[in-house]
């Protein structure tokens, strides 16, 4: 289950998302189209963090992917309305503010945080969520992506699903559900099995001080993926970031220059990965 660090960060209000909402294969989606109405170079699907498909940060990132790569970018709602409330971002960030943040206030924040977290965990447990996600990707492959390649991105909560999709679990017309994958600070990764199962090109942005996937476990994942690359089984990429908390690629403080620069590096890492594997 995700922990408090999965909800720390900053809500982005400095930029307004420019995409649109629609319903695709029975699921609500945010859609960011490429510039100038040009046909997309591929489709990228973002599986969000615990704040779900409506978090402005995620939608802004989708807009950036679409603009930089000429992709159609989709952010589907797989949480059935059980995402963490966006109001939880600020108080959880204050949980680390020392003695000023009294024990009573800590208890109040915990009581605000724990119920929706358990609700999210229950309603997105694997036996419920996995068939929904896989079936949606099948429909996407058969329709919008019939002649396009698909990339997937996942952050925090979405990271575990990136690993499962990168395992090439099912095929549609001989094609994998996704052609390449990227994840930033994934949570709930089963080490080493998830890394061993990767068969699709995978790129990862990871902090050395991340808590859901601590450095020793992340290093184990990296070693497995680099061995896959070296042996020619599957090309992978792993980029370390220092002094960045969990969530840095999505919930960074836009007024902190160093944080914003690292988030931009992670964003460009993903875009270049998609250009490499999705362009035809």
TrEMBL record:
Molecular function via GO: hydrolase activity
Keywords: Hydrolase
Protein name per UniProt: Alpha/beta-hydrolase
Pfam families, per the entry: DLH
Coiled-coil region list: none
InterPro entries per record: AB_hydrolase_fold, Dienelactn_hydro
Organism per entry: Aulographum hederae CBS 113979
Domain Dienelactone hydrolase residue range list: 34-276
């Amino acid at each position: 289950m995700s922990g408090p660090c999965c909800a720390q960060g900053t809500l982005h209000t400095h930029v307004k998302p420019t995409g649109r909402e629609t319903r695709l294969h029975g699921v609500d989606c945010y859609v960011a189209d490429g510039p100038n109405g040009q046909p997309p170079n591929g489709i990228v699907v973002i599986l969000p963090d615990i704040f779900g498909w409506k978090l402005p940060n995620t939608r802004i990132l989708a807009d950036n992917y679409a603009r930089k790569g000429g992709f159609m970018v989709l952010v589907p709602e797989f949480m059935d309305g059980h995402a963490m409330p966006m109001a939880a971002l600020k108080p959880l960030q204050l949980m680390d503010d020392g003695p000023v943040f009294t024990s009573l206030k800590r208890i109040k924040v915990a009581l605000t945080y724990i119920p929706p977290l358990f609700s999210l965990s229950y309603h997105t447990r694997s036996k419920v969520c996995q068939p929904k996600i896989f079936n949606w990707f099948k429909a996407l492959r058969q329709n919008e992506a019939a002649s396009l390649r698909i990339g997937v991105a996942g952050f925090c909560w979405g990271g575990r699903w990136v690993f499962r999709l990168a395992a090439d679990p099912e095929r549609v017309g001989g094609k994998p559900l996704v052609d390449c994958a990227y994840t930033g600070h994934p949570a709930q990764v089963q080490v080493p099995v998830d890394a061993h199962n990767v068969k699709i090109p995978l790129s990862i942005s990871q902090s050395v001080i991340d808590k859901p996937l601590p450095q020793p476990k992340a290093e184990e994942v990296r070693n497995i993926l680099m061995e896959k690359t070296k042996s020619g089984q599957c090309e992978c990429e792993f980029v370390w970031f220092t002094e960045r908390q969990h969530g840095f690629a999505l919930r960074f403080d836009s007024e902190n220059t160093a944080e914003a620069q690292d988030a931009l590096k992670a964003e460009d890492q993903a875009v270049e990965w998609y250009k490499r594997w999705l362009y035809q």
